[in-house]
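Annual report, structural modelling task.

Input specification for the DQA complex:
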Amino acid sequence: MKKLIIINGPNLNLLGKREPEIYGSETFEDYLNSIKSKFDKVSIDYFQSNIEGELIDKIQEVGFSYDGIVLNAAAYTHTSVGIGDVVKAITTPVVEVHISNTFSREDFRHQSYISPNAKGVILGFGLQSYELAVESFL
Ligand code: DQA
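The model returned the following structure:
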């Protein structure tokens, strides 16, 4: 059985209440349950943190043994050399996801420290971006 993990960065614990016109009104926990039952032949772990170093620790921990990482580093995508470096350092492939189309938003969201070392990038499909990313590993 393939082993995947979804890793969410800062403020994504607020999904459902946070700017619903951009991020939708579903909580990530509800969405995660639906994705887990849809892909019942894969194991999908989940980790969320608002803290940059905790995200790096988790990526190091899983990044040499898991089959895939679905990473939404949220605001750290645009600022974190450290997360960019760890994505480069590990052997597990990373698919970068974003709920919103970051290219249709402010200029500072057009920069990603993750994309150069990601296997691919999926953005702008709402929460569906995550299932497209999971599917890409199957
Ligand atoms: C986001 C886009 C980022 O620019 C933003 O900082 C987020 C969420 C997205 O999923 O659309 O927090 O990664």
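The domain at 2-136 is CATH 3.40.50.9100 (Rossmann fold).
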